[in-house]
Design a protein that fits this description.
about 40% helix, 10 helices, binds magnesium ion, two-stranded antiparallel ribbon, five-stranded parallel β-sheet, alpha/beta, 7 strands
Length: about 260
């Protein structure tokens, strides 16, 4: 298995290549979570244990291209499958589809993923299994009441097999979360709901793997501070790159930047 950093580097390329080929957006949201997904698939998530595999819910379903890119970089999906992205008849499209290998849950309707993962963690407990359930949420999914219902119940239930990863990129669709609905202090909110909490740089794959591997006696929230559009300068923190597809010159610039030497591990 490649290192998480290598997986992420390859996956960023795949995100740009396939978003451009398919002429679709949600690129900034996908780049925001590439390192989070690479950390999960580089050694945290036990995905090769049949029915007793760990479960993963991409609650922010519009970031699906990042998931498919990381699965491909990790050798779990074939590049020829990824090449069907957004073509007629393919299950590999802008939101996760559970008919695709390694995708357990179809998502896209926001605010539901933490409840799904909590149910999955409860099922593991009832099965007396050590398998874990992870949900990756956008920060703006914390706007949704259902997210907090799940958080309240999971804390009350000491659901130790559950991990929520919050992609705190500070943006939602066409606004900044600080303007639309201020979420801070996020860590304190989860602590108050009786969760264990760690705050990490969401692009530091080593720190992420450490935080994601931890399991205590309570559900865990990993508050990951990320940069929307991370890795492509003109997308970083830019609201327009929530929906916008790439034109040819933007595509070429993005690839050049990703190919440039970087000090990012
Ligand atoms: Mg966001």
């Amino acid at each position: 298995m490649m290192s998480a950093a290598s997986l992420a580097r390859r996956a960023r390329h795949l995100v740009i290549e396939h978003a451009y080929a398919a002429e679709v957006g949600h690129i900034g949201s996908a780049l925001s979570i590439v390192d989070l997904l690479a950390a999960l698939y580089a050694g945290v998530l036990r995905f090769d244990r049949g029915d007793d595999r760990d479960r993963f819910v991409l609650s922010k379903g519009h970031g699906a291209l990042a998931l498919y890119a990381v699965l491909t970089a990790a050798g779990l999906l074939d590049p020829t499958e990824l090449a069907t992205y957004c073509t007629d008849g393919s299950t590999i499209a802008t939101h996760p589809e559970h008919a695709t290998r390694y995708v357990d849950f179809s998502t896209g309707s926001l605010g539901q993923g933490l409840s799904v993962a909590a149910g999955s963690a409860l099922a593991a407990r009832l099965d007396r299994s050590s398998r874990r359930a992870f949900a990756l949420l956008s920060d703006a999914e914390l706007d949704e009441g259902a997210t907090w219902e799940a958080a309240l119940w999971a804390g009350h239930s000491r659901l130790d097999g559950l991990t929520a990863i919050i992609d705190v990129n500070g943006q939602q669709a066409l606004g900044y979360t600080a303007d639309v609905l201020d979420l801070e202090p996020i860590a304190d909110k989860f602590l108050a709901f009786q969760w264990a909490v760690s705050e990490v740089d969401g692009h530091d794959t080593v720190a992420l793997m450490r935080a994601l591997s931890a399991r205590g006696e309570r559900p865990t929230a990993v508050v990951a501070r990320t940069t929307f559009g991370s890795g492509v300068s003109f997308m970083e923190r830019s609201l327009e790159w929530h929906y916008r597809p790439l034109d040819e010159s933007q595509y070429e610039t993005a690839i050049q930047e990703l190919d440039a030497p970087s000090d990012r591990g």
